[in-house]
Amino acid sequence: MTRVAVGCADYPALQARIANYAQGSEVRFTTRFKPKRADELIGGKLHFIVKHTLVGRVEILRFDDRDDGRIDIVCAAELERVHPQPKRAHQGWRYLTDADAPKAVDDASGLGDLPPELYRELAELSLI
Questions:
Q1: Where are the alpha helices (DSSP H) in the chain?
Q2: Amino acid 112: pLDDT
Q3: Phi/psi of residue 17, nearest 5 degrees
C-alpha cells in the first residue's frame, strides 16, 4: 500500500515524524475507510511517497476501528529505507503489488543515501 507523506521534505523528515508519533513500538495512521483488502495487507508494508518518490516503508500490523468512525492503520514504528522509486502523488492510499514494490536498502553501497532525483537519473541511465 502507498501513502503520501504530506509535509515531509525528505527521508530524514519522514523518519523524524514516525519517531515523534510512535507509541512504544507502534505508530498509527488514520484513514476514513478500511481498505477492502485489509486482511491480506496485514504483515505487508505501507510505503511512503515523498516528493513523487517512494522512499521508505513500515510493516502493517493491524487495522483498528476508532470511536469516531475512522480507521487506524497500526504499523511497526521501524521505518525501513527503500531504493528510491518514482511514484505519482495521490490522495489517501493505493495498493502496490509485490512486483512494483521497491527493494529495501540493505547494502553498504550508499545508494540509498543519494537524493531521489539523482538516484532516478542514474537508474534511467542504467548506471545503478
A1: 11-21, 38-41, 116-124
A2: 64
A3: -65, -45
